[in-house]
Protein 1
Amino acid sequence: MSNENKRNSITGRSAFLALLKDEGVTRLFGNPGTTELPIMHAMTQQSDISYVLGLQESVVVAMADGYARASGKIAAVNVHVAPGLGNAMGALYTANFSGSPLIITAGQQEQGHGLKEPLLYAPLVPIAAPLVKWAVEVNRLEDLPMIMRRAAKIALTPPTGPVFISLPGDILNMEAAIDLGESTRVDAASRPSDASLESLAARLLQAQRPVIIAGHEIIASDAFGEAVQLAEMLGAPVYQQTVNDGAHFPSEHPAFMGSLNRNQGYVRDVLSSYDLLICLGADLLRMSVYSEIDPLPADLAVIQIGQRDWEMGKNHAVELALRGDVKETVAALLPILSARGGQDLTDRAKTSLATVAAGNWSVQREAARTKFVEMASASPIEPDWLMMRLVDLLPDDAIVVDEGIVSTRCLLNFLAIRDRYGYFGNASGGIGWGIAAALGIQIAHPERRVVAVLGDGSAMYGIQALWTAAHLKLPITFVIANNGGYRIIKERLLAFHGNDQFIAMDFKDPAIEFADLARSLGMQAERIETGEAFETAFQAANGRDGPTLLEVVVQGGETMQG
């Protein structure tokens, strides 16, 4: 090596961090092990990227998932070889559902050494590949820049999602004169052709009773305003998609009707009064448990607009499928629709919206409030009342993170969504995301209070994240609704099988003391058993600089009868 090349050389570990920085990464979420020591060594020699320590790999992926969703930026995660990647798979499953742009790396045994199958070794790429957009192992230091640049581009190109890179130790410790290259970003804010938009406008004008399902791509493309204009121009009621994982439409708008759920019969009944369904950046009626009832009425025509062509026509026939960015597509559609529809469309929309407003989300909220306000003195605390009062007492501009499963069913009946980052829910249904995601979300929005509402069962899948919240002194209020078991499983056993013998669905012997557990992890905590105590404690928690956990004892499955 010439003296000039030696002066310009760089180690793989330093190049890795330099490339992350240049791609916009400011934090590396991780849980290090022996094979990650080169990275940790390099971390001490720079100050541009901070390390956020989580105490288990699924926790750090969920933190990064929350950060990416709440910031719209790429996030980086580092886990430890095969067992670490294995631990992370549940959270990676959720990040894949969320479409979170993550670069996930794992330290790998040195090349050649893996042939001896040492402790902790397994080929990493096949493990990660099913749940990421791209998975690769670095075999030459010279290839590291190209791989990192490609990974960032792939993760951030819609439909966004996680990528995985395996980093052998010898590559990280190697030194060479390499070109770090330049980042690439793909402008994917495309729209369908003019001819397709004209056809779409004509079809929309044919509909007498259109309805809109608003989905998560509205968040990704920042299309709140465009979605509202489309609903107003058509006079169409708007429902949030069946997986309520984010803020898809402003709740207080007169056209908003609330969220669809995953009860096939209910959804079919709701949709049966319409003649055209406009699926706007949403999953088309994603369900959970099997039902013989199809949620889509047989005679209901469907139009689907979004960037994930895989979802179009996947389960139900779609009359028109337009691949494009929701914001760009609707913005281009609106003037065509207005010109074609004229005053007749304006008058029809006005009449329709007046009808919709009579039973919209705001009206439903007041009806629910009248019902639940009388539950204030219930003992144990009634979860529906708890959600109502929690929303009433939220700080201004708070962000709500929801993984309460059963206890928070009524949360969105009261929580007014006003911006695209005001609410986050679990996209995949795999529990254990909520506590850690709340940390990432708060880091992305340091000026806002985060309130995380969790079930007791969900909380135990990611409880380690409380330590990181305490360590970083993040202003998060954790509310754990403690019903002493897996109530959702009890409900489904009773509903599906008529069986009220709840085996392996309780954790009361011994009971889990969440407040004590939180205090042991370094934060203030309180166990609450009355509504009055909750109101006092919740307001106090939201006034503190750091995190607080409130364990709220709520009615559980023992109140159910067969």
Protein 2
Amino acid sequence: MITFKKLTWKNFLSTGNSETTVYLNKDSATLVVGSNGAGKSTMLDALSFALFGKPHRSINKPQLVNSINNKHCLTTVEFSVGSIEYKIVRGIKPNIFEVYQNGKLLNQESHSRDYQKIIEQNILKLNHKSFHQVVVLGSSNFIPFMQLPSHQRRNVIEDLLDIGIFTKMNGVLKEKIVALRHKMNDTDNELNILKETIKLQTSHISELKKIDSTQEEKRTNEISVISEEISVLEGSNLDLQHEYDLSYNATIEGHEKALSNKTSYTVEISNLKRNMDDVVKESKFYEKNDHCPTCSQGISQELKTSKNKECKNNAKSLNSDYATTKEKLKVSESEVDKLYAQIVHLNEVNNSIRQNETRINILKNRVEALSLTADIQDTTEAERKLSEDKEKRDGLNEVRLEQSTLTSYFDAIGELLRDTGIKTKVIRQYLPIMNKLINQYLQVLDFFVLFHLDDSFNETIKSRHRDEFTYSSFSEGEKQRIDLSLLFSWRQIARMKNSANTNLLILDETFDSSMDADGVDNLLKILNTLGKETNVFIISHKQDLLEGKFPRKIEFEKIKNFSQMKKVKE
């Protein structure tokens, strides 16, 4: 279990040079209040930055440094994993990134990116997205599980079930397969050379036995022709190798970058389409409705005109962005195809080099065989060499058979380690438990639907009357009930698996959004059942509504443009 204990920050966002410290495991529930801009959500950004090097909200890294002091931005988080104590210190101006284990600084020689990988894969066993699915539910820049792409949903579930090890194993296996295939190619080349050599040697011995002195000139001429061909092939290989070395790495890197850009543009187009649909829905709403369907309050013509104008402007802007991104995607796809063609060409160049090398070895062996004919009286040495090469060939055939067997073995393991193998079997075992928990929490939150996730993490939602819905078809308040149910379910699963299990739960303005009074009461019921091992932080504007409902309160205020934390009220 990950137990977060203490968070400290200074010169971070609106916080000045005085350190702000929040103890994360002191009480079962803490209410965090303050006016807009007072710095309530800063603790969430500071925690996210300390752990992952990026804030919770969409804020550029240079903007994290307090704009007045403009230096010495520093965040520190202390936590334990089981019996091991950790402290992460991360700062800007100057840049600081330190990880302490039981008070001892870990090796600083690793590249910062590798250092972060150690934190996420070996210590927390959580990445940035999974952390926010298990620990944080917020109204600002939070992407609920149901709004994540399917592959990101899968990554979250894999982290919860602690089956990411199979992905790592598959990566190691792929590396072994590549290395083995290289060895098999080398073995095949050696065998081909040996077979050709044995053929030449056999022929040579036969020739030795019937050759006479008149054939010496013919032998010399053949050696000369072969030597010329070897020279031409070696020169060609130098040119081919130069071409390959000059552009292969850059081409591979360019292709990977182009693929990344293509993916980014594809995602961006998807998001733009969704946003355009939302604008159309909003426009139709104001065109068709004179009264609010929820509260029956009348909608003025002035408001409708204003909203329609706003929708038109948004639609125009989104259409422009869509066209621009579509063109970028087209350019990116063209670049991907171009670079792929170059990769294919370079692979052909490499194959030509290998073929030339094989031919050169064969020709050199031929020259060697022809040179042996200088002593036409004695075939003993040639026959001894032939016998040795045959033994070597038989040994290589055994090696090749072992390599082929190992390849089949690796292929079988690869099938198990793929997403459709062991991981899917584990996920399918836990899906009934997940769906049961989700529906239980939905009922507690007075949302009586039948929610079902399949093994591709697509949802089916049925009403009491068996009508089918999707997540996007519900109101914001109903979506929030689903988001809360998923969050609490993931935490239950994490506790069962002891994977992403943590004491910390942060609800950022959850009570301030579209949740009604009954929803607030029901959520409080759930929070009261979480137990002593859970430390909940409720960030809210609704101090009057939530006052006295939690054992501890922290209040933030802004004084002379600096956020400060008032004395904690127990």
Protein 3
Amino acid sequence: MESKKRYTITSALPYTNGRIHIGHLAGAYIPADIYARFKRVTDNDVAYICGSDEHGVAISIRAKKENKTPHEIIDKYHNLIKKSFIDFGISFDNYSRTSSKIHHKTASEFFNFLEEKKVFEIKSSKQLYDPEENQFLADRFVEGECPKCGFKSAYGDQCESCGSSLSPEELINPISKISGAQPIEKETEHWYLPLGNYENFLKEWFIKGKKNIAKSNVYGQVKSWVDQGLNSRAITRDLDWGIPVPNKDGLGKVLYVWFDAPIGYISSTKEWAKRENKNWELYWKDKDTKLIHFIGKDNIVFHCIIFPIILKAHGEYILPENVPANEFLNLEGDKFSTSKNWAIWLDEFLVDFPTMQDSLRYTLTVNAPETKDNDFTWKDFQARNNNELVATFGNFINRVFVLTHKYFEGAVPQHNGLNDTDIQILKKTYEYPELISESLDNFKFRQAINQLIDLSRLGNKYLADEEPWKLYKLGELERVKQIMFVSLQVCGMLAILSHPFLPNASKKIKEIINLDYNKWTGLDIKNPILNPSNKINKPELIFRKIEDEEIEAQMKKLKS
């Protein structure tokens, strides 16, 4: 269990062109939140950073679609997304936005610094142009057939079906997403980042250095790209929405969103550091800081190749320690589709299930698409909640608290020694902080949350085997004291260890047992979590059962 280290943890900046759905949560936000909470309770210095990505073509497309200005779009969705994250309980240290002054300044300074170092290439090229709208088409304004897999609706920068990195010129039968017209080629000048100059760096730093660290799905994708050879990539665009190129020759051009967006992590950290009176540079430039990016697989190229090259070219910044990208989550057997409304929107979920954030966190973690795509179904959500959270975890907690009130008026019993079985149960209980820590340090979130449930199963089995209710009737009060004391220690451990995964449940249990201890460090079998001085308040159910009617309503809603 690592402690006393510094971590900069980021979640992918969500685009402010729509709402957050549970697929997003599963990919970049719940695992990052679990990890950030875990690192805090193990006595580390944590900056968990995110913010809205408010530039790029997607915003312009949405603005045209809704007949609004880009500013109106980003304000609308930034506020909605931020509120959804707050209501769900994601524990960002700072949630910023790339339209902020501090971000514009930071991204412009980055560009100028790299230009002064002569990192960029400036070259003319023929790019796709919409003859009806009289404007150049950025990558995402172009749609066509993927040359690699044949997917009919690939974007000009990436195929969302096979994940291949593309350029608009590679698409077969391209069309403009603005007018539907067939684009023509027209000459334009742009700044390029010469990715090929950094292939040796990537081979040394990532291919060799991260071989036994990176997740297999991440490593395989990066290695494939590097093996194919990297081409120079334009970092400016002919657009009227974004950060203006800070150069007199860049009139009418903006910084490419995938140049400016990752720099948003840095500007958001600056914003947080200023508010908290901290030194932001420690979190981005100190070699002892560990930088961890949580993303979905569609962002691997940007976080493992392009952004590290930008940081390397600058020369003053640390590089990512790890990028534990998840694969995609499907919904009822099909891909999430915002256009077809095939999605479970976070803001709507919070209205329909207002107190069940932990149930969703649990289901999305236990089914996390860690190395391959996975599926969310409403029936599985119901089953996981009812069978594992209610009937296993919650049932054990409730039984122990009810029995403590019944036998000892809510007081933790004083015992006169424990037998071998009791001691073995306690020993196993105190192994779980290290077990779960090891899983989380290796980004095995599914394994970690299953270990948490295993601890509740251990408590349930112990209680069922020892049968204190029978012993109480037989007048064996001393043995009942021993059993309830041990069971209460398991409850206390569950309260502490559940915090990263199930923060609301953790808080509720701690309130019932009057426990204000939150740290995982310092837990010692010789120092019981709960003592006779602790009073157990009136028990209440930690989780509620989900009824069939609720699930039927959601299925109808999904298919409507």
Protein 4
Amino acid sequence: MKKLLTCLCSLVLLLGIAVGCAPQTPPDDTGNDPGGEEVIDRTKLATIAPTIYDVDEIVTAEETEAGDVQSWQAEVFTANGGNNDMPTKNAVIKSPWHTLNINGTDVPVYTARCGKSSHSFAWVDIVDHQDDFILEVKLTMHRTYAQCVVLPESRGVTPQIDGKEILSYIKAYGSFTYTFTSDATANVTDPTMTPLTIMVTKEEKLEIPVGYDVQYIEPGYHETNELEFTEEGMYYVFKPGLHEISSVRVPADSVVWLERGAYLKCTDRLNDNGSHNTTTAIHMEDVENPQVLGRGLLDMGEVLGGDGKYKHVVNASRCQSPVVKGLTIINANTWTMCFYNCDDALMENNMLLAYRTYSDGLMMSECRNSVGRYNFVRTGDDAVEFKGTGWGGIAEGSNCLYEYNDCWTDKGSAYCLTWESACNMTNMTFRNNSVGFAQPTWSGGNNALDCRLGTDVESRWGDVVFKDIEIYHVISPNVIITQMSGVGAVLDNILFENITVKSTELGTFAYTMTSSGNGTITNIQIKNYNFCGKLITTADMDNPALIKFEGTAKREELTIS
């Protein structure tokens, strides 16, 4: 037997040499593998801290009332193919498809429902090597796939598939979404096949500054007004575990800190007089320096959505320097994270997954000098947007920025100025963002990059930049649209620069301008627009399969270079 094994091993070695495969070289003193496809400095493998929700609320699909994952997914869909806006249980389950290990640490993977199928997620904090780290990501799937692509592709993560095992290396902060297909010849992956987003962030420890007091909030059921905090100069620290809440108020100069593993489940409740309590789940009004930080999750699954909704999700109105950072929000019942008439606001490192009608993701309305960055958004409506609602008081918005965000859409637009335009808005920028799948289904007005004014007032939205945006696949009618439906409104000086689209469905337009009513669209510029491998040029103005003008739109207001 020993002689037989020796012969077989020799034969395997000879065959390997014959087909050009060199014997594996042992790792060097640093742990590198000189014979591998990618040389990894294993001294940079970071210690990680995964987010773990140790709550009875999260179970397997088989343990839900639905009984299996297909039935659990189907609970949020209606017979006509729409989404169910009613409250549903088990908003988050344990992923039935993914087993994840990063740098030798098991990382739990959770799953939430979306407008099309579902989306899984995991979150890890980098504890050491924070300025120069490597994550060795070992992903075991429930089945084999022919391809795995990590989005956005520009971040350079190249997974290696070995049966059900997928190996990859992450060397930067941000979101990394693993997508799959069973078709070895497919140009793009399938968005319905168990996508997984891993959020990678720098660990931020709880440190109470001098002059601040602290109040620890233990898990459990919290009475309706129990968390309407008023004392300023405080850290309100939610401990890990399940918190059943109605609403949380963040006072001035205070921090609501959600410890890693804090799970806040919001529910609709009645006031003493029998009316519904409509207080926003997490809210800040007319205060300076309110902050929501940490690594917690807000679950809105058991709150009514649609036209009959009672509660909103996360709002800041007329605030100075509000911050929301590190929050995961699941199953938003309406507009998810909204800042109205705020100055120096920040939305950073948040993850939003939703499917219901009106579940817009990140929104700044008539804000000034505000930023949204490093967020992952997949919603049942528009993903990342500017509005001018006037709901926080009539004011002019200016100098606001969305950068380094990644989003998918199932029904609405990806990055947009959209519809409500009661206030003037100027100097708005989208840069260094990505779109995974732009797959809106509601109307021809929902696309990847939108400027759409629809409020019947005289307002100007201008000096807008969409720059350095990577788009993987577009199913929507248009990649870019500028649309005017308002009375007297002006959409002016809009730049689209360095836009790259990998692929689209047949019939998708590269650009559409449409105008009706008395509003005007002026000075639209397109520069360095790569549409499915083709550079869009002035000559394409006469190609009706690529560029379209509708209504009273004027061709002379578009320039391409």
